[in-house]
Amino acid sequence: MDMGDPSLVVAAVAVALSLVFLVVAARASRKPGKLPLPPGSMGLPVIGQSLGFLRALRSNTAEQWIQERVERYGPVSKLRLFGTRTVMLTGPAANKFVFTSASLGTEQPQSTRRIVGERQILELMGADHKRVRGALLEFLKPDMLRLYVGKIDGEVRRHLDEYWAGRATVTVMPLMKRLTFDIISLLLFGLERGAVREALFDDFEHVLDGVWSVPLDLPFTAYRRSLRASASARRVIAGITRETKAKLERGEASRSSDLVACLLSLTDGSGARLLSDQEVVDNAMASMIAGHDTSSILLAFLIRQLADDPDTLAAMVHEHEEIAKSKGDGDTLTWEDLSNMKFTWRAAQEMLRLVPPIFGTFRTALKDIEFNGYLIPKGWKVLWTAPATHMDGSIYPEPAKFNPSRFENPTAPPCSFVAFGGGPRICVGMEFARIETLVAMHYLVRRFSWKLCCKENTFVRNIQPWPLHGLPVQLEQKAAKSP
């Protein structure tokens, strides 16, 4: 190009001036004080950082993955997960914001809603959330929980007699899944052992496989597997709902019979039912997932911890032997007995801190929101994760160390321990999980001792944590004791 040509020089100047004008106009059009988006990268369309995040979960390096993002971008960063534009927040202040902000809705990614349900408590807001939460709390109120201790006690004893007694080795994780499923299916659906319970158990083994996965509804994908398992489980629960409704009409069931009966029985001031059939099914699904998967993980990892922690085991055994002294042969545990299991519950809380069953969840920005000087645009997802505070050494000194005394006189800032969430949406089943855990540990530590079969004591997160090989242990039965 010959820049000596006057016409070319004029054209170049005109182009330069036009670019300057466009830049100035763009800056002038910005609203004063408009907030920037958080730092970070969206990555590839649809996929974004999903594959890297899932790899970190499944290789048990997710805590490092989070820490690297915080070191690179700070406590607030943007990314794309599971096809959705997302902002990840970390720290106690961020947790409090997520749990209490009225500007954040609980809408999960569409992939999760298709699996778990559109009308379950985690999705609802405002009056609908208050109505459904109130219905679930009716089933979980203290005088109802007292009734469940004996039922849980019976299921635990039967389980140990059938699957543990007389065995030289057992694989703990699948057995804890079995135990918690049997407990929750009895209390939620009134299901005794039989074909229907077995079919539902098979479905729930796969319901969560694709909750946090790339949402590709294609053959052989985890997402497709979850959709099929969810649809099958939903059909079973819908059938149970119809049968329970008929039993209530015939006077063969009452509100206290099980969760489905309770939800179907609730009415407003005019006598109209509080929950639709879809809401009953969706919330039964969500309750089954919460009560089945999370408690089984806690129990399995407590058993894993106790195998190599003689001091904690000795303290726990002592606590339960003291409780047993006041019991007669064959007596079941009572609500009052559970109140004396303080050390066991501190150990359980510490286990939940180290290995939270729920790694994190999403919220949705209902409008443009400011947090920490950044804009979270309307419609974007907000991700919080439990390990971001659970494994923060400034909150929990020596965070990788198992230390139940942390929960004797807690000093961590509010919204640091978030195994059960927090705020108005704190887990409605938290007390139920406590009962389930304490009853199971009472009989386990008094009836058995065990050693790990695998020298490598590791676990992976395939959405939820899973110990190596399902945690096989060598089992030794103690001399018979009562109760």
How would you portray this structure in words?
This protein is α+β, with helices and mostly antiparallel strands. It has a single domain, classed as Cytochrome p450, CATH 1.10.630.10. It is 51% helix and 11% strand. The protein has 17 helices and 12 strands. The strands form 4 sheets. Strands 1-2-8-5-3 form a 5-stranded mixed sheet. Strands 4-12-9 form a 3-stranded antiparallel sheet. Strands 6-7 form a two-stranded antiparallel sheet. Helix 8 runs antiparallel to helix 12 and helix 12 crosses helix 15. It is globular and about 70 Å long.
Q: What are the SSEs and their pairings?
A:
Blueprint: H1 6-29, H2 50-58, H3 62-73, E1 76-81, E2 84-89, H4 92-100, E3 104-105, H5 110-116, H6 126-139, H7 142-163, E4 169-171, H8 172-189, H9 195-204, H10 222-250, H11 259-265, H12 277-307, H13 310-324, H14 335-339, H15 342-354, E5 360-365, E6 369-371, E7 374-376, E8 381-385, H16 387-390, H17 430-447, E9 448-452, E10 459-462, E11 464-467, E12 472-477
Parallel strand pairs: 2-8
Antiparallel strand pairs: 1-2, 3-5, 4-12, 5-8, 6-7, 9-12, 10-11
Helix pairs in contact: 2-3, 5-10, 7-8, 7-17, 8-12, 9-10, 10-11, 10-12, 11-12, 12-15, 12-17, 13-15
Shape: globular
- Spans of 5+ residues with little confidence (pLDDT < 50)? 6-32
Helix content: 40-55%
Q: Which band does the percent of strand residues land in?
A: 5-15%
Task: Tell me, rounded to a whole number, the average pLDDT.
Answer: 85
Q: Could you name the CATH class? A: Mainly Alpha
- The order of strands across the largest sheet is 1-2-8-5-3
State the end-to-end distance.
Answer: 97 Å
Structural class: alpha+beta
